[in-house]
Amino acid sequence: MLPETLQENELAAALAAVYPAAIIDGVLAHGELTLHLEPGDILTVLEFFKRQQQFERLSTVTAVDRYPMEPRFELVYHLQSVARNLRIRLKASVSDEISSATAVYAAANWYEREVFDLFGVVFKGHPNPKRIMMPDDWEGHPLRRDFPTHGFKYTYGEQK
Amino acid sequence: MSEIITDPELHHEPEARSSRRMTLNMGPQHPSTHGVLRVVLEIDGEFIEKATPEIGYLHTGIEKQCEALNWQQIITLTDRVDYLANLSNNLCYSLAVEKLLGLEIPPKAQWLRVLLTELTRINSHLVWLGTHALDMGAMTMFFLTFREREDLLRIFEMFSGQRLMTSYIRPGGLALDPPRGWEKPVKAFLADFPNKIDEYETLLNNNPIWLRRTKGIGILPVEEMLEIGITGPLIRAAGIPMDARKMTPYSSYEKFDFNVPTATENDVFARYSVRMRELRESLKIIQQALDGLPEGPIRADAHRVVLPEREKMKTQMEALIYHFKIVTEGIAVPEGEVYQVVESPRGELGYYIVSDGSAKPLRVHMRTPSFANLQGLPNLVEKRQISDAIAIMGSLDFVLGDCDR
């Protein structure tokens, strides 16, 4: 449901007119529009913004780990419309997997690999679901809140 | 001389090609990869069939480290993200935190921020020009650009005490008052540098080898560039005047008069000429910042989040208490999230910061231009010659620290 405060907002209202069920919540803070979406509808909404609202480019895809909340991962998509000079932030909360946005925006490719690598979120339908930053044989996902910041995994002389 | 054969289909039969394929590792220690980038090339003779960039060799976990540090301590990490444009990174992070805090920055600090980030742009473009030309065999350029870069590094050292890791722009303003007489070297640089740009252009603009290796090379349709997320001088050389300084002005950029250079050829030479014109535009901005520099404080008046002046801290009890609290406890940034964009020398630099109201951020994500621009490398180099790949990689102007973070 689109909150009362955003009824006047052109972008939010345009989305609510077509896909009212996709919106869970929305907020306009610091001049930035954020829409919280149903994770199942993320591709439809990205498609809508790209094709019908002239958001030509995807700036970035990232995640926020809200551990120990459930669902813990918040996927964050930043879109930009160069023609209209607008930006929008879309969010979807998932616990482990979501559809890959690469079919809509090619730019999502490396960003989703990064999120998979560092958070362990699986992107369904990703063309190359491999680690990008960490070594291929790395265990764990470093940007999770329960992954330690300091210290070694093994001590010297200790075998795995 | 005039036709360069670029289509491998013209030369080899398809069945013969399969046995001629070879895999070649370019990097991670190849000089033209400018850092530790590894590109796995599948080549057929001199032609690249497939290119796979492998990144992550310089991944230092800066985003993870940010979650363990105070809001003020992170500024030193932002220097190390893009070590050629450290002040742009300082500025972007500071602007994001200030947006969350709702701070109003005094005009003098804003003007100095503009001046310093434009000097950073020149610095970064000089390194790009020197190494790009060096890759193509024009060795003299490297010595010339590093000669001028030395002047810039001295200016940074004069301001902050550091040549590279300046940490000069902080949330709330600037770290220090500029030293007495700081205008003199900046003015000397401004007077001298236009001639130096002419000198570079004399060496390159009519150089037949430079022209043959850059003109008509590395063309990609504009729609595809937007789709991949390429920004900065690359997209401007493709005809789109996309520049955060004009589109979403920050730090009073709207009060400065400058143009956004664009070109339509979309090749390596167009990217070179756009960057050369950006050097001159940056000089214009620096001149305006010098001429119109307002008087006043260099830090915002917010005692709970900005460190007091040294003099006050030594003489006033209250200032000492706030100083102690800020240093020991850190500052509490209100809950919320922002995505702040600045135009770094390489393109769109964005900091996405989430705060949960505590003294440490919940998440700091850096949308770095090198990462997105490198993603387009396979599209740019495939079906082209290996020597063209060197020119194209130079024109991308990536910094691996910026890419891997």
Describe this structure as you would to a colleague.
The complex is a heterodimer of chains A (160) and B (405). Chain A is globular, with a radius of gyration of 18 Å. The mean pLDDT of chain A is 85. Chain A is built from three helices and seven strands. Chain A has helices at residues 10-18, 42-52, 108-119; strands at 23-29, 32-37, 57-65, 73-81, 86-94, 97-99, 122-124. Chain A has 160 residues and is α/β, with parallel strands linked by helices. In chain A, the strands form two sheets. A five-stranded mixed β-sheet of chain A has the order 1-2-5-4-3. A two-stranded parallel sheet of chain A has the order 6-7. Chain B has 405 residues and is mostly helical. Helices cover 49% and strands 12% of the residues of chain B. The longest helix of chain B is centred in the N-terminal third of the chain and has 29 residues, at 107-135. Chain A binds chain B through residues 29-30, 32, 34, 56-60, 62, 64-65, 76, 78, 82, 85, 87, 89, 105-107, 109-110, 118, 131-135, 142-143, 145, 147, 149-150, and chain B through 55-56, 59, 61, 63-65, 67-68, 99-100, 223-224, 226-229, 240, 242, 247-248, 336-339, 341, 348, 350, 352, 354, 362-363, 365, 367, 371-372, 375, 404.
